[in-house]
Design the sequence.
């Protein structure tokens, strides 16, 4: 598997939707088998249970599907309102909405030409939050990595993150993240892909092993 970071050569508009559908096929069956008590388990997202995370994810994707982007959308306040609107919903209804969003949002993202790609990546990361909360394998990994890592690189450039070259286990070529600014040489990461995802999304690093030179962990997160 190779990765090249020139957007003109490698950008794939189908990638966000493909990532969502890949995760849907794994996550939705897990959610439907889970007891209601599992939805009340706390996640790494401050103040949010699994149910809160899923309600946020389903509402965020339905905003894409229905093209509802009012001022302040996806802000912490907007996210909390979306969760509160689903407070009386059953867990199964939230999962139904999530499944629909993961199925239909990709087509809208294609038309957005990259502007909504970060939503897809964020939803995939939140699916990892659920797996981590439940102690399941595959958090921030699995088949979705083939699309998640290029999306992470793209999003890091959109957010003008600091430059970093990542030597990722199992990838043939280094992954270039961020935007060179001429002020500092690219930082260097050596380690596995799930840990790189954790670093860039501010997830707990307990139990991980990696090498990072030229940057601090606190400089890397590009998601709130």
Sequence:
């Amino acid at each position: 598997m190779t990765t090249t970071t020139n957007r003109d050569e490698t950008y794939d508009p189908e990638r966000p939707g493909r990532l969502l559908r890949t995760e849907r096929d794994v996550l939705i069956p897990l959610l439907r088998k889970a007891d209601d008590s599992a939805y009340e388990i706390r996640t790494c997202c401050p103040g949010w249970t699994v149910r809160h995370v899923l309600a946020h994810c389903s509402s965020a994707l339905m905003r894409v599907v229905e093209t509802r982007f009012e001022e302040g959308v996806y802000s912490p306040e907007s996210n909390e309102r979306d969760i509160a609107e689903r407070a009386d919903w059953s867990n199964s209804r939230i999962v139904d909405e999530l499944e629909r969003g993961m199925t239909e949002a990709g087509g809208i993202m294609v038309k957005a030409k990259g502007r909504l790609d970060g939503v897809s990546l964020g939803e995939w990361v939140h699916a990892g939050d659920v797996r981590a909360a439940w102690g399941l394998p595959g958090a921030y990994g699995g088949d979705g990595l083939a699309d998640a890592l290029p999306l992470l690189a793209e999003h890091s450039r959109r957010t003008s993150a600091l430059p970093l070259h990542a030597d990722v286990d199992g990838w043939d070529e280094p992954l270039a993240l961020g935007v060179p600014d001429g002020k500092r040489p690219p930082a260097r990461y050596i380690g596995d892909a799930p840990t790189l995802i954790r670093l860039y999304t501010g997830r707990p690093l307990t139990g991980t092993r990696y090498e990072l030179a030229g940057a601090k962990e606190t400089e890397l997160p590009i998601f709130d």
Remarks:
- Residues 91-112 form the longest helix (22 residues).
- The helical segments are 7-10, 15-33, 50-66, 76-85, 91-112, 117-133, 145-158, 193-201.
